[in-house]
Amino acid sequence: MAKVLILSGFGINCEEESKYAFEIAGANQVDIYHINDLIKDKSILNNYEILCFPGGFSFGDDLGSGKAFANIVRNNLLDEIEKFIEQKKLIIGICNGFQVLTNLNLLPGALAHNESGLYIDKWVKLKINPENNSPWLSGISDIELPIAHGEGNYQISEEALNSLKTNHQIAFEYKENPNGSLENIASVCSYEGRVIGMMPHPERAIFFNQDPLWTLKKDQLKRQSKDVPEYLPAINIFKNAVNYCKHKFENIHIAP
Amino acid sequence: MSIRLSIAPKQALDINKSKLAAYKNTIDLIKTFNSFSIDLKLNSEEEKNIEKLFLNSQIEELKVDENITDYEFDYLIEISFLPGVTDNQAKTAKKSINQYLKRNCDGEVFSSKIYLIKTPIQKEEILESFSSLYNPLIEKINILSKPELSPENFKNLAYVKLNSEKTSFSEVDINLSDEDLITLGKFGIANEDGSRRGPLALDLDYMKVIKDYFLNTEKRNPTDIELEAIAQTWSEHCKHTIFADPIDEVKDGLYKAYIKNATNEIRKTKAAKDFCFSVFSDNAGIIEFNDEYNICHKVETHNSPSALDPFGGAITGIVGVNRDAIGCGLGAKPVANTFGFCFADPEDKDPLYRDKDLKQKMLSPRRIMEGVIEGVNVGGNCSGIPTVEGFTYFDSGFKGKPLVFVGTLGLIPKTIKSENSELKTEEKSAKPGDYIVVLGGRTGLDGIHGATFSSVEMDESSPATAVQIGDPITQKKLSDAIVKEARDLNLYNSITDCGAGGISCSIAEMARESNGCRVNLNKVPLKYTGLSAWQVWISESQERMTLSVAPEKWSQLNEIMQKHDVEATVVGEFTNSGRCLVYHDENEVLNLDLQFLHNGLPKRDLVSKKPKDLNIESTESLSEYGKLKKGNDLSTNFKKLISSLNISSHEYINEQYDYEVQSNSVIKPLQGINKVNGEFAIVRPDLKSNKAVALSHALYPSYSDYDSYRMAAASIDSAIRNLIATGVSIENIALLDNFCWCSANKPERLYQLKEAARACYDYAVGYGTPYISGKDSMFNDFKGYNSAAEAVKISIDPTLLISSVGVLENALDAISIDFKAKDDLIYVLGSTESTLAEVNAKANKKIYELYHQAVKENLINSAIAVTKGGLAASVYKMSLAGDLGAEINLNNLKTNLSDDETKLFSESQGRIVFTVKPEFKEQLEAVFSNDELSCIGKVSSEKNLKIDSNNTKLLNIEVKDTEYKKFSKGFYNG
User: Fold this and answer.
1) A88-A91-A96 Cα angle (round to 5)
2) What are the residues whose beta carbons fall under 8 Å from the beta carbon of A221, sequence distance 6 or more?
3) Average pLDDT in the B499-504 region?
4) Residue B139 pairs with which residues in a beta bridge?
5) What pLDDT shows up at residue B685?
6) Percent share of chain B, pLDDT over 70
7) Nearest-CA distance B432 → chain A (Å)
8) Which among A14, A71, A218 is the nearest to B53, CB-wise?
9) Which of B9, B34, B56 sits opposite A103 (nearest CB)?
10) Distance from CA of A240 to the nearest CA of B (A)
């Protein structure tokens, strides 16, 4: 089974499109939970195989991006999330979700203000680390995704960076650094790749018409008498997770 | 015990350095801290433990109390909020601490920003260099040298205390002479010390009606709160009196005669094709989208507040118009924001002052611009609403007051399920017996007109009455609770936004639905004590909505609100008594006939007068090309045009605004390989549907100098044509009007207004495009002094912004502006005439319909509506966007014009440039009649724009973004 729980509340704002991406990817069930509902009944998490921390502006980045939301998770849900990871289940943090996961130390490193000091929304070319074996990334090649953040400047100590490299935990690098990130790092993972965080937004690169040059590509395909595709490659990130869970948790029913 | 925690980014990551870059030779920024003064009665273990809530040690360092002074520095500069100004960081900090300690701590948290600097300069110069980092209207600055710092005074720096004196209400003697009535209306109610509370903005006609009502109908004097409430409700801002009152022969007034009538007639003509669900009556206009959803659209202005506090004014504007969507019908989800900024040239450094003594300096055009851009950035981005479309327009007339337009598109299901039926979401009605529920932010002294802030200990003048800093997160929680939960459970009967006039307007407005209300002001949750009854009633504190809730549904609604961390409070009930009743401290402080409150204001006859003709040499001088300082060389002039402020890129703004959240973007604000600004955007708000919504706008303020009728015609035609070009059918387009005028009490300005309104009627009816919502702002004038202490008055050009919204049947049919391939044929549709030539709606409508037929036959692969900068700028933008070139021969352009420059740069309306694959030539030309269409050239792979005329080479310009993006790329570097 591949059932997805997506967190919401306090300024998270990408929960609906994240839900939609998992649904298109074939998830058996996708539910959005306000974090307060999950705190009220923590056992809910047992019913899911994938946990998604979507993008947004939790608490308006007031204490620093992701910090205040991470404080709530740490004070209420950390044990349950650690258990979730032990069960070989999957977690993704996108943008603000990535910032939350680093603040919780579930992923290494930290995300500082963009070097320019400005928020930036643009599409970027990403290089996949071929040695990374995250279940989220099977078969994913170099890809273009949009970023939209003010604090995406990935920073990590030299020592931790070395271990990140040794363990092939870097998932994506920017081909052109948009924010000052060390070693162009855009995405990292942990726990054998089951927990992944990324500043770019794969859920915004699902439909063909989300590609910034889709009108040009459509025209080129038409000139070659070819059909336009319905989806973009980033849908495969969600499909990978769904397929992994369907396979892995085929017959397992975990009692609530 | 209190504690102070200060957090700084590690040295290399300090982005604040760039803000002081201009002073890098004199000021060395050592550290920048976010500092929190925490006065919450914590024990010492707790004080230690909460540190980790604030610190990410990988990228930050933390200092406790005066340990901040460990560094080597000369001065400490602290910037903190003035009393009463919303401090969001402090709110979040307190919440994090309460959560962690699992109790509600008594006390306060204050946030501030601290800079440690090394410098040889003195305090006065430091203050000057930091002037761009703080706004004295909402913030205070403390500059202390290292020797002046002691542990105690450091701890107390940020503290802000309010005292708690208040009055309930007072009686105001209304039995006054005309002269005294004028004074009361103009300067407001007298305080005990003889000072006045600030303008009621009620002139003698109104004051006499009020006097008559109280003395003869109520047979008593009014209370202060009654007068304030009437002033709010009758204000130009709320009642749009200039648009409502009879003017000359137009006895119904401009709004009814020209705007509302146009819509009514169009709807009648469209009959079965009428897509309007709710127009003019609600917070936003509602039209049909698909089988499941309707959409609503509203565009607001927030001009005056943005002149004083650009950041606060703009953020309040954007989150305010978001609330128009949330409060529209039974609640729409905001799905796209739009913006439009009119500024003076940011290079204009000649200061303006509000006073003759040159002490109150106005913010510079650049400061205003930066602050406004950032305000919409924070408001839109934090709310999770994509900001998909917008414009900048520059003219020296906006130096005194910028125009800040903000718009929001909303998505609302057509029906929701109730117990036994389907409810139409565009209908709502408060019922007698319903609770009046105020949701969201607390009420403070924000936005109270000119009220003096007498309850503050400090000597700053009226700080909290300035515009507030909006709090998008509080509103996001409120929005989620309403449009993602409470609405679909049918938990309220009516909803409206608290905007201008605060609850005095929102409650009294909803009370019309049930025909009465009873309110207890003591129930309204306050930010701080010390507010008098009238202040609570008219405060414009942000992030509030008013609901009408049946008593049996209150507990379920409140539960949802609590989960979302949204404060909900019952402050009274709706009745059917015909009266608006308000209590405070068990006194009846307001008891007014609802009829009188809403409809008692007298109509006044406005008289207009045709202004003297301005001596305008040629209408071409009003075009963007005509406004340039030109030389003899056409290439140089053309480059000047491409790099001019009103033609060139505003990518630097678009890229700061998240235009892709909600995953609904179809055509983004930047188009093609080289990212060129289009004048429209397309979103797909319901991901399950292929239908899309296209949004655009147009304005031509400079044309008003010549003829405001034609100015309005141009705005309407361009706004429509931008959508036509991308493939929207003219049958699916609706319009919104925003009139921003100046000196609207002058007969000459009223004449221009009347002419523009008349054009609004003629062209909307001509095109069959109804108005669904509108707004006006009538006095965009600045009166003050220049640096020589000479009195100056700066008025904007009369401006009509027309926003257009249209439904596209299939998102994948959208046409972008970028050229697609070499050898494609370039056509001009519509006739090229001189700038400001009469717009022919009938002829245009016909060619727009034919164009749509060509679109449906999939013949067109790129298109742009010709607007500012004329034909040449249009073709250049298409080339640049496509990273291709063009070969144009002007001999092939069918036109009566003889002058090549005019052919290239005239801004005559009704034209679309588009491209077609060569093999579609015949099929395409068969759609149109010969004289409407000119094939002027073809797309080339060589990246040059070559324009020939009569066998001479007029222009050969390399297609690259250097000029087009010069301003955009340089803005934050220079």
Assistant:
1) 160
2) A227, A228
3) 85
4) B81
5) 96
6) 95
7) 34
8) A71
9) B56
10) 20
Distance from the Cα of A184 to chain B's closest Cα (Å) equals: 16
User: What is the residue-wise DSSP string for B487-505?
Assistant: GGGT--SEEEE--TTHHHH
Q: Is B882 in Cβ contact with A11 (below 8 Å)?
A: no
Q: Which residue in chain A has the smallest CA separation from B670?
A: A212
* Contact yes or no for B656 and A119 at CB 8 A: yes
Q: Which of A20, A37, A201 sits opposite B563 (nearest CB)?
A: A37
Q: Tell me, what's the pLDDT at B130?
A: 83
Q: Which of B58, B383, B660 sits opposite A204 (nearest CB)?
A: B660
Angstroms from A251 CA to nearest CA on chain B: 31
Whether A242 shows a pLDDT value over 60: the answer reads: yes
Residues of chain B with C-beta less than 8 angstroms from the C-beta of A118:
655-656, 972
Contacts of A103 in chain B (CB under 8 A): 56
Chain B residue nearest residue A15, CA to CA: B662
B566 pLDDT above the threshold of 60 = yes
Q: What is the pLDDT of residues B13-32, one digit of tens each?
A: 677 776 676 677 788 888 89
Q: Least CB-CB distance to B377: which of A55, A114, A119?
A: A119
Q: Do residue B477 and residue A11 have CB atoms under 8 angstroms apart?
A: yes
Residue of chain A with shortest Cα separation from B811: A209
Structure-block tokens of residue A78: 């950390």
pLDDT value for B457: 27
Q: Active-site residues of A: which are they?
A: 95, 201, 203
Kindly list the structural domains of chain A, giving each domain's residue range(s) and its CATH number in brackets, ordered by start. 3-248 (3.40.50.880)
The per-type count for chain A, helices as H runs and strands as E runs, is 8, 11
- Output DSSP code: residue B257: I
User: B423: number of CA atoms within 13 Å, CB side?
Assistant: 22
Those residues whose C-beta lies under 8 Å from the C-beta of residue A158, and which sit 6 or more positions away, are none
Q: Average pLDDT in the B692-710 region?
A: 96
Asked whether the predicted pLDDT for residue A183 surpasses 90, the reply is yes
- Provide DSSP, B903-970: HHH---SS-EEEEE-GGGHHHHHHHS-GGGEEEEEEEESSSEEEEEETTEEEEEEE--STTTTHHHHH
Buried b (16+ CB within 10 A) or exposed e, A192-225: ebbbbbbbbbbbbbbbbbbbbbbbbebbeeeeee
Longest dimension (CA), chain B: 88
Burial class (CB in 10 A: 0-12, 13-18, 19+), B74: middle
Please, which pLDDT band fits residue B466 given cuts at 50, 70 and 90? very low
Coil vs helix vs strand at A100: helix
Optimal mutation site among A58, A210, A215, A238, interface B, most CBs of chain B within 10 A: A215
The pLDDT score that the predictor gives to residue B189 is 87
The top-scoring range by mean pLDDT among B422-426, B532-536, B647-651 is B647-651
What is the interface pTM, i.e. ipTM, of the complex?
0.95
Instruction: Say whether B794 sits in a helix, a strand or coil.
Output: strand
Q: Which residues contact B923 (CB under 8 A, 6 or more apart)?
A: B857, B859
pLDDT in tens, B502-528: 898 999 999 999 999 999 999 999 877
Residue B927: both structure tokens together: 């759609």
Asked if B100 and A121 come within 8 Å (Cβ–Cβ), the reply is no
Q: Which residues of chain A are within 8 Å of residue B88 when distances are taken between CB atoms? A: 60, 62
C-beta atoms of B13 and A118 within 8 A:
no
Q: What is the pLDDT of residues A197-217, one digit of tens each?
A: 999 999 999 999 999 999 999
Q: B752 is written with which tokens?
A: 């221009």
Q: Please say if the pLDDT value at position B306 is more than 90.
A: no
| Burial class of residue B617 (count of CB atoms within 10 Å of its CB; 0-12, 13-18, 19+) | exposed
| Rounded Cα–Cα distance for residues B36 and B160 (Å) | 13
Using a CB-CB distance cutoff of 8 angstroms, which residues of chain A are in contact with residue B654?
121
User: Inter-chain contact A62–B381, Cβ cutoff 8 Å?
Assistant: no
State in Å, rounded, how far the first CA of chain B is from the last one. Answer: 47
